[in-house]
Amino acid sequence: MRTSAVEILHIEAGKRTHRADCLAVEEPLTIRVSGEALSLTMRTPGEDEELVLGFLYGEGVIQRRADILQLRGGEVTLAPGVALPPPLRRFPTHAACGVCGRSALPQAEEPPQRKGGPLFPQAIFPQLSARVRTAQEVFEATGGLHAAALFTADGALLCLREDIGRHNALDKVVGWALQQGLLPLTKHLLFVSGRVSYELVQKAARAGIPALVAVGAPSSLAVAMCQDADITLVGFLRGECFNIYAGEWRIVSV
Questions:
Q1: Rounded CA separation 250/225 (Å)
Q2: In which residue ranges of the chain is pLDDT below 50?
Q3: 58, 16, 62: which is closest to 41 by C-alpha?
């Protein structure tokens, strides 16, 4: 269940009204690998197996779907020969941030699309937000979820996932792409709701994504990482208005 109904007191123009409201569900998911707890994340239920796949791929535990022998909910059995990360790499996570609780930030890997990748027509950007909003069924009901959406280079929506955590939504998209055999995503564009911070860039780079677009602001570290990795970074997307913080050469007027 992704939504929950509650009774609230609504006040508008001085008038008090009791009515029902719809909330996004937030529940814990423990990711266990070969019986050992690897991570605890607070997420919105749904696409849990995609979330687990995307998380494990982003952390470098797996490289392909075949590295997992069995996956049921948050329970994972690795294929023979696939090793768990060392204990220092294991950490709790929650809905707010994909790196909270770590003792140090992991190093971003060199993405395969450096100094290459597709060009994106400038004309597709004003359409992205509307396409995402139309597909956000749970956000429409609750107003309380983030979204991550994968687009083709010409602006066609391939996959959208919602979650109470930005990094969870992105992990679900990456997990979906892993199941579909699409990784690395060197010809795609990733759209995220809200702001862009370090952990989203790190996950996008790991998945080979050449362009990252957000409706909110990027952090200074996110911009520096995108400039370093040659990832195109767009922020403050508002219709036909947006800022390009890195990789502007990929966005062309045609």
A1: 17
A2: 88, 98-106, 108-114
A3: 58
* Pair 129, 216: CB distance under 8 Å: no
In whole angstroms, give the CA distance from residue 51 to residue 54.
5
User: What six digits make up the tokens of 10?
Assistant: 């609504």
The amino acid occupying position 3 is T
Contact criterion met (CB below 8 Å) for 135 and 160: yes
Cis amide leading into 112 (omega within 30): no
Q: Choose among 145, 140, 171, 164: nearest CA to 48.
A: 171
pLDDT of 100: 46
Predicted TM-score (pTM) of the model is 0.85
Q: Is 22 a catalytic residue?
A: no
Of the candidates 22, 97, 100, 159, the residue annotated as catalytic is: 97
Distance CA 124, CA 9 (A): 42
Q: Buried (b) or exposed (e) across 96-115, using 16+ Cβ within 10 A?
A: ebbeeebeeeeebeebebee
